[in-house]
Amino acid sequence: MGVLIAVEGLDGAGKRTLIERVVADLRGRGLRVATVAFPRYRVSVHADLAAEALRGAHGDLAGSVSAMALLFALDRADAQDELSKLLADNDVVLLDRYVASNAAYSAARLGQSADGEIVDWVGELEFGRFALPVPALQVLLDVPTELAAERARRRGELDAERALDAYERDGGLQHRTGAVYRELAERDWRGPWWTYRSDDGPAELAARIAEIVGR
């Protein structure tokens, strides 16, 4: 059975780029590696409904923190069989976002901290009721909010399919989400965390993951 590693961070933090480099390093070490990105847009109806709501569709759906959190959670619940198979067939499964993203954004929307009710609810819903696997390590890609926002803006200008949604356009929400993420990491919420900063390198993260695998 492989190990599950979740990479978390704000929109535009650079999660995809980091994961690509870590995957290359791990494969160079002879490890079997698979990746999954959440939300699974164009794969999961729940993820697509959430994306459409964040762009103004489906009435007042986006206004409900719990409803949006549930859609994102259902996306992951539907991926459970896929995750189980990937973990059985690989040494490492790297996730671009996982349960902590739901907890962080939901808490930030409500003005709550990492010890707020919504964080507990998300954890119990996804890890408890839906029985999703708990990561062996959660990595917080901690970059300045302004830098992440600028990257997300440029990305949206270059790719119409990645244009900014309501969450990404809300600078205050991004600041609050970053703060909740850091609190989750400090508390080792739902397992061990490691905060990845600008002076770290992909090779260092890959080495840490390889150590967890035992390679």
UniProtKB/TrEMBL annotation:
Gene3D superfamilies membership: P-loop containing nucleotide triphosphate hydrolases
Enzyme Commission number(s) of this protein: 2.7.4.9
Recorded catalytic activity of this chain's protein: dTMP + ATP = dTDP + ADP
GO biological process: dTDP biosynthetic process; dTTP biosynthetic process; dUDP biosynthetic process
Coiled coil: none
ATP-binding as UniProt keyword: yes
Domain Thymidylate kinase-like, first and last residues per copy: 7-161
Any single GO CC term annotated in Swiss-Prot or TrEMBL for this entry: cytosol
Pfam families: Thymidylate_kin
CDD domains for this protein: TMPK
Keywords tagged on the record: ATP-binding, Kinase, Nucleotide biosynthesis, Nucleotide-binding, Transferase
Record-level Gene Ontology MF annotations: ATP binding; dTMP kinase activity
Domain of life assignment: Bacteria
General function of this protein: Phosphorylation of dTMP to form dTDP in both de novo and salvage pathways of dTTP synthesis.
Family: Belongs to the thymidylate kinase family.
Official protein name in the record: Thymidylate kinase
Top-level taxonomy: Bacteria, Bacillati, Actinomycetota, Actinomycetes, Mycobacteriales
